Amino acid sequence: MAVSPTVQDAFNRHINAEFYSSYLYLSMATYCESIDLPGFAHWMRIQSREEYAHAMRLIGYIEDRDGRITLLPIAQPPIEFASVEDVMQQTLSHEQHVSTLINRLYAVAADAGDVASQVTLQWFVNEQVEEEKTARDVIAALSMVAGRSDALLLLDREMGARTPSAPTAA
Ligand code: FEO
Hints:
The protein has helices at 5-34, 38-64, 84-111, 115-145, 149-160. By secondary structure, the protein is mainly α. The longest helix has 31 residues, at 115-145. The structure holds MU-OXO-diiron. The site of MU-OXO-diiron has 7 residues, from helix 1, helix 2 and helix 3.
């Protein structure tokens, strides 16, 4: 069954939010490079690519449902941040915002009686739980570092060891 125009439009708006997330984390990566934290920059570049993959996964889904994709303009992300702690706090706030958007999208699908969309979105609901947890864990690690440059160097190395997660079926 083809996706309804209401659900299709809501997905198109959310695809834009995922592309914005990719843009935001890429901007954070360049900021982290600028303050000589290459490990955090690496971590943010992987995060950026994962957000791009989320958008592509949703595009694939809407195409499978015989829907039409509308690529909306991507807003400019912030360029400057106060510190790496600020970067991670903004990451957590952003992920909490995206969780709200996913919940709203899920509600649109539920109101339309669109079971396939609800099932597709369950993966995103779980992903948001993981992403919020990861951001909180990094914030906790940064608070333990508490400005000690030797400890920050070690944490940066640890962030630099992040490997991309295995691609998931779109
Ligand atoms: Fe794709 Fe971090 O939300």
